[in-house]
């Protein structure tokens, strides 16, 4: 009996807005903060924000096109856009992205799993391929978090950023570079208020008073988010490594969701991942939620930072609360300009 196909990562792409916002720039001048304060607590020195008129879908199209070129893929069987900032409440952003990419009437849907969106999308794309429902899948994490951030809220304004990252999966074999060997996901809805936009959904469709308009912006309980993120990312990573039989010390590439450098350092320490294996870009890109992991992957491919076949661990935690991890071998993708 033939073994089911394995999802193999075969293309990467990204898109970052041109506007660079540094810790010392005007948007943060009115806040009770400083460059040193932001860097010491988050590891962020600058981030990218979109200009007015640029949407999440615009970034997703550019990142998706780059990933398709990287994979030399002319067609796909499924498009998934994971995002917290869709172009509209309805319809979903993914069908419009697929149409702009010229992919025809393929299945396309949005996936909302906050900062864990990419790990959830990777699990979904892998499942479609393993089940024989698709041969090639385009996964895009795209965010314009600056559009839902209160510029007067120090806890979020200095952290969140915009960008898009994408990967292409195709059906292949487990011994190929880029093979996605396992995924593991989890959630805890009792922690819904760790990071939440209180108004704008069906529970509170319209703020009742003008002074409540800020409740359409993302609010985050920073200290609690920190502790939950460390705990869950550590647990899911340890469980996944045990499942695939990889000692933590043998992990050659580790990419955590780029939320906070202190979180990333602590998770790597607790899991036992070598410091040399840790990859990231939070210093110059900030927290791009579901886009962060594929953004780092694309950068690492361009920099030739990881050899093909290297044991790779991805992990993320986000509001919901939701978390996930994936084990794969590093893809054999030639860098593109």
Automatic annotation (TrEMBL):
Tell me how this protein assembles. Answer: Homodimer.
| Keywords per UniProt | Acyltransferase, Cytoplasm, Fatty acid biosynthesis, Fatty acid metabolism, Lipid biosynthesis, Lipid metabolism, Multifunctional enzyme, Transferase
Give the primary localization class: cytoplasm
Pathway it works in? Lipid metabolism; fatty acid biosynthesis
Q: Where is this region: ACP-binding?
A: 258-262
Q: What is this protein called?
A: Beta-ketoacyl-[acyl-carrier-protein] synthase III
GO MF annotation terms: beta-ketoacyl-acyl-carrier-protein synthase III activity
From the UniProt record, list the reaction(s) this protein catalyses: malonyl-[ACP] + acetyl-CoA + H(+) = 3-oxobutanoyl-[ACP] + CO2 + CoA
* Protein's gene: fabH
> What role is this protein assigned?
Catalyzes the condensation reaction of fatty acid synthesis by the addition to an acyl acceptor of two carbons from malonyl-ACP. Catalyzes the first condensation reaction which initiates fatty acid synthesis and may therefore play a role in governing the total rate of fatty acid production. Possesses both acetoacetyl-ACP synthase and acetyl transacylase activities. Its substrate specificity determines the biosynthesis of branched-chain and/or straight-chain of fatty acids.
- Classification via HAMAP family: FabH
Q: Which organism is it from?
A: Streptomyces lichenis
Q: Where in the cell is it found?
A: Cytoplasm
Q: What EC number(s) is this enzyme filed under?
A: 2.3.1.180
């Amino acid at each position: 009996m033939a073994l089911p196909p394995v999802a193999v990562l075969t293309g990467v792409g990204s898109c970052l807005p041109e506007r660079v916002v540094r810790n010392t720039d005007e948007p943060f001048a009115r806040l009770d903060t400083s460059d040193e304060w932001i860097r010491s607590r988050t590891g962020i020195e600058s981030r990218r924000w979109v200009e007015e008129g640029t949407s999440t879908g615009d970034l997703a199209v550019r990142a998706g096109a780059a990933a398709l070129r990287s994979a030399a893929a002319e067609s796909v069987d499924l498009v998934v856009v994971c995002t917290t900032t869709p172009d509209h409440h309805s319809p979903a952003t993914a069908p419009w992205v697929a149409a702009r990419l010229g992919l025809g009437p393929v299945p396309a849907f949005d996936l909302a799993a906050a900062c864990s969106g990419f790990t959830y999308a990777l699990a979904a794309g892998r499942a479609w391929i393993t089940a024989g429902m698709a041969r090639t899948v385009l996964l895009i994490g795209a965010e314009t978090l600056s559009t839902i951030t209160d510029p007067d809220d120090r806890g979020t304004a200095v952290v969140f950023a915009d960008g898009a990252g994408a990967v292409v999966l195709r059906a292949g074999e487990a011994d190929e570079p880029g093979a996605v060997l396992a995924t593991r996901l989890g959630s805890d809805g009792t922690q819904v208020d760790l990071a939440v936009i209180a108004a704008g959904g069906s529970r509170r469709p319209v703020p009742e008073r003008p002074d409540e308009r800020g409740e359409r912006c993302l609010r985050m309980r920073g200290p609690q988010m920190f502790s939950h993120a460390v705990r869950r990312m550590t647990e899911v990573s340890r469980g996944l490594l045990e499942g695939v039989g990889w000692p933590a010390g043998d992990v050659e590439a580790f990419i955590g969701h780029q939320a906070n450098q202190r979180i990333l350092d602590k998770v790597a320490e607790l899991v036992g991942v070598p410091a040399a294996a840790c990859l990231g870009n939070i210093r110059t890109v900030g927290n791009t939620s579901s886009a962060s992991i594929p953004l780092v992957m694309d950068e690492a491919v361009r920099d030739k930072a990881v050899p093909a076949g290297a044991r790779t661990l991805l992990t993320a935690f986000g509001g919901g609360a939701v978390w996930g991890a994936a084990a794969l071998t590093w893809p054999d993708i030639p860098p593109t300009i």
